[in-house]
Design a protein that fits this description.
With 179 residues, this protein is mostly helical. Helices cover 81% and strands 0% of the residues.
Length: 179
């Protein structure tokens, strides 16, 4: 074989090898594209899964907020019913207190025979007919006239605030009855 045959043969091998080599690279590039597509699909699936979880969490939060609002409304309605009942009870007690006070103010005629008192009792001076509330609680009314609050008066007199309020209200009613 001559040199020129070797060269032609070598050239043919290089051409065949050259044609085969780029074909091998094409499948590798196709594999890279395929891998990229798989990665993107997995990413999309993960995003969809996260989106579903987020949507479920939002729906759950909305349901919890609705339930809490409903419980608050029910509690408010219950408190309003209790308040109305307490108001009615207060009005009833106020009316009964007024009727009790009216019964105390109205003179009652009693037919009781008068018997002479023992000598020991006759020497004592007769008590006053009826002291007014202001006379009985002069210290309380003095503090009230000074502009002290009900809390301060109650603290100073060692009484409850309700007692102080009741005494002041009774005094007003007593003044109204006198006029």
């Amino acid at each position: 074989m001559s040199n020129w045959q070797y060269i032609v043969l070598l050239g043919a091998v290089v051409v065949v090898f050259g044609l085969l080599l780029p074909r091998r690279k094409q499948p590798a590039a196709a594999q890279a594209v395929n891998n990229m597509e798989v990665s993107l699909e997995q990413f999309m699936e993960n995003m969809e899964q996260d989106n579903r979880e987020l949507t479920a969490l939002i729906v759950q939060s909305q349901e919890e907020a609705r339930a809490k609002a409903q419980r608050s409304e029910e509690r408010l309605a219950e408190l309003e019913r209790k308040y109305s009942a307490m108001e009615q009870l207060f009005e009833q007690q106020k009316a009964s207190a007024v009727s009790v006070q009216a019964a105390q103010v109205m003179p009652v005629k009693v037919d009781v025979p008068i018997t002479p008192a023992p000598a020991a009792l006759q020497e004592e001076p007769a008590p006053s007919v009826k002291q007014s509330i202001q006379e009985r609680y002069a210290d309380l009314f003095a503090l009230h006239q000074q502009g002290k609050s009900i809390e301060a008066i109650a603290k100073k007199m060692n009484m409850n605030k309700g007692e102080v309020q009741l005494i002041l209200q009774l005094a007003k009613q007593e003044e109204g009855a006198r006029v």
